[in-house]
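Hi team,

As requested, here is the filled-out complex form for the 2-phosphoglycolic acid run. I kept the field names the same as last time so the parser does not choke. Let me know if anything looks off before we queue the next batch.

— J.
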Amino acid sequence: MLIAGNWKMFKGPEATREFAAAFDPPAGVDVVVAPPYVSLAAAVEARLTTFAQSVHWAPEGAYTGEISTGMLLELGVAGAIVGHSERRQFFGETDETVSMRAEAALAAGLEVIACVGELESEREAGRTEEVLRRQVGVLPDDERLVIAYEPVWAIGTGRTATPQIAQEAHAFIKSLLDRPVLYGGSVKPDNARELLAQPDVDGALVGGASLDPGSFAAICEAALT
Ligand code: PGA
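And here is what came back:
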């Protein structure tokens, strides 16, 4: 089981250190945090397994606002999230750039959590499998790749997919690419156990509930039972 916390644009270095001091996860579950770039060093120094929230495909160059695999490795960062739906929605991320980011990160030796998931309108139109097939289709088959299924309608909305919806989507994703699949979208301490109990749910990518050390630790506990 892998439980990953995506902190999005929350927590500078000081708040990261405070989190680390208060965070006491159970043994036996793999835990990752993905803070903003400026807090990566603080997270690594606090001995948290640390992922970036994205990574560029070029080793260096004129790419304002981006960060390279080498820079992350220099800090001791273990991996990167790619293709989060907020990157796709607000920052023009496409299947092609997600694929380039994933390929470059894996080639550099980083682990990758690649996010996929359908919009509400796509689910209502019966297009979920078509969307997942397209998004998963660009991902490399690599032993350091983990997929996160995050239905966009469940992110930050408090509307979690039912365990059955998650299980169906995870099984479908694994039929396309046989890698571990995390569920993401309004995972909280009180719904984590049921979601994580599904046979094809291999962990969680947690946004809001990963910001508090107590609730994030409670989700990690849920992964053990
Ligand atoms: P949420 O975010 O848990 O706040 O819904 C999940 C994510 O965006 O990874």
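Two things worth flagging: The mean pLDDT is 97. The radius of gyration is 16 Å.

Thanks,
J.
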